[in-house]
Amino acid sequence: MSDRRKTLLIVDDDEGMRETMTAMLRQDYRVLRVATGEAALQVMQKEDVELTLLDVHLPGISGIEVLRILKENYPYAEVIVVSADKEVDVAIEVMRHGAYHYVSKDFDGNGLRALVANASERQDLNRSLLRLNAEVAEQNDREFIVGPSRSIRTVVERATKVAKTSATVLILGESGTGKELLARMIHRESEEPGGPFVAVNLAAIPKDLVESILFGHEKGAFTGAIKQQLGKFELASGGTLFLDEIGDLRYELQAKLLRAIQESEIERLGGTHPIKTSFRLICATNIDLAKAVKENRFREDLYYRVKVIDIKMPALRERIEDVPELARFFLRRYSTKFRKTTQYIADSTLQILSNYWWPGNIRELENLLERLVAVSDKEWITDEDLPYEFHVAQLDTVAPSSENLLDMALTTFERNFILRALERNGWNVTATARALGIPLSTLKFKMDKLEVRKIAQRIRGN
To answer: Under CATH, what is the fold of the domain 318-461?
Structure first.
């Protein structure tokens, strides 16, 4: 996190008062001084001013008018209004216009320092809230699931090793493989886990808004820029910035990104001065960046700058042994979210899922379980709940010399039919046999043959 001093602007036409306040505050802040409101507004256009001590009585444009302009154009700057008069009406008016506090000029040094420090702290809290609001929609249920496969455990081992460093990480892999979840895990394992994690999907942002969203903008920088806006680089200061689908970044913006990485500074759209920022950068892409470099679609210098540490996320079909654990995890997640009683998924169903190709990777598996749980009214997810294409994929995996495909389909139907009957009869085998109109011995035989008995026993045990 950057340890630079904040910039404080003193606006007062009394030179002695400017000197007095400067002497009190210069140790903790970078202090700028002007005598008029007009000069203050010029400074605000050139400097990244975070705190202001503003005299209410100024020659030319009044302090209250300056306050109004500052809060309209620079909403993240905190303003303390200072006056020689102790006027209640003035105090009420400046507070109504957004001033942090109103103080008379007979202040003492300790009191003023404490007041400015409190304003600075509130500014930090407001920016933290802004970061949290940017994260909150993405923060829920963002757990990285580590299955039994060797491929994913290798990825986690590598990620854990680099997490404690500040090195830039490039995560490669197909869409839906969990690249952002891995980035979040690296952030949690980093030296600054309490800092912000700001994720930006560059492919999802309209091309004409990418620069503004990344770097921020000043009021009037373009049509519709009605106020100053902080960019993702500033919001990520002291934490991690995750740029997803970096291969989609416009070529002309790649140079600006390279400078931000190398110099740890950015410039807002429409701005006139650089702003220092410090963050851990993690990038991700599903395209071949080396090929994009050869085709002049991606800058070579930026490629080598983001590819300090590269981690390849395997496709789900390359870690198919993780499917059962992932499926059960998503089942629990959405059963809780939708307040459903669906708690289990049949082993035969997991086998069908494990035989599927998963072109959409983990995202496709999660979407499937969300849909199955949302429409379910029972405790178990079984084969018959799966969409048609999963059964077709299951048949495609059968070798020509294996059992008759019709027999397989009939076995699947019979297993699911018995499971449904058991569920309707409270998993009571005797009652189920009676409801089906078959001898108890016949039902037990079929339950053993179809591997249904152990499911019933597990239910009764719960």
So the answer is: Helicase, Ruva Protein; domain 3 (1.10.8)
